[in-house]
Design goal:
AB_hydrolase_sf; Alpha/beta hydrolase
């Protein structure tokens, strides 16, 4: 899905619970004369449900680069939410010097996410368990949001992803460590986190992205958890546009 026709190109990579249409109000707020956004579906998600694959970061990257090539984009920034934050770094490594900048929204770092036993059971069982999906979304937004909204987010994820793909991607984003490959990369990076996200908050970003990328900066969004595109879309778009305009 492409939104806008502007000269600044942005590849948008969604999260584990998302899809190309899982960006909240962000797409409708895009300044379409200044920016062009490609919102991509991974295999097994959205318009690509039922599509087979290995469901890996390398595959996401290869598919993403094929998609931007089909649009004739020679260079572009990459916006990644959650799992997409890990995938955007794989794209960076695979695309050579084509990537102008990275914007991570509550992004998974290149180190993966090591789980303790309790978290491993929760996340590992989420593919087939609606209640565990609910618990994860509720947890990562600070246990503070409307039950109706959380339930709708759960239903969206169930409707927008194949169970097999959803389960397989967990190992792709949580269990893959390619931090040595990105260490010291000079690309400009902006990481944006919500103050109410206990899983991928400021402390994790300081230990990973800010320690790995010398040109990285961090912004904490107030009144947001893990899903800033739904919780605080205007504030999120403002920082995204500010970063893009500096590139």
């Amino acid at each position: 899905m492409v939104v806008g026709s502007g000269p600044v190109k942005v590849l948008a990579l969604h999260g584990w619970f998302g899809s190309a249409t899982g960006w909240g109000s962000l797409p409708e707020l895009v300044h379409e004369d200044r920016y062009s956004y490609l919102f991509l579906d991974y295999r097994g998600y959205g318009a690509r449900r039922g599509e087979t694959g290995e469901f890996s970061l390398a595959e996401i990257s290869a598919d993403a680069l094929a998609a931007v090539d089909s649009l004739g984009w020679s260079s572009f920034a990459v916006l990644g939410h959650s799992m997409g934050g890990s995938a955007m770094q794989r794209v960076l490594l695979d695309a050579g010097d084509r990537v102008t900048g990275l914007i991570g929204v509550s992004p998974v770092p290149s180190t993966g996410v090591p789980f303790d036993e309790q978290a491993g059971q929760l996340f590992g069982g989420a593919a087939a368990d609606r209640g565990k999906r609910y618990a994860i979304i509720d947890l990562t937004t600070g246990n503070r949001l409307s039950r109706t909204w959380v339930d709708r987010m759960v239903q969206f994820s169930l409707d927008q992803s194949d169970e097999t793909a959803f389960g397989a991607y967990l190992d792709a984003w949580a269990g893959t460590d390619f931090s040595a490959e990105v260490q010291g990369h000079p690309v400009p990076v902006r990481v944006v986190v919500g103050e109410h996200d206990p899983a991928l908050g400021a402390a994790v970003m300081e230990q990973t992205f800010l320690a790995q990328y010398p040109n990285a900066s961090l912004e904490v969004l107030h009144n947001a958890g893990h899903y800033a595109m739904y919780e605080t879309p205007v504030a999120l778009l403002t920082t995204v546009e500010s970063f893009l305009d500096q590139l």
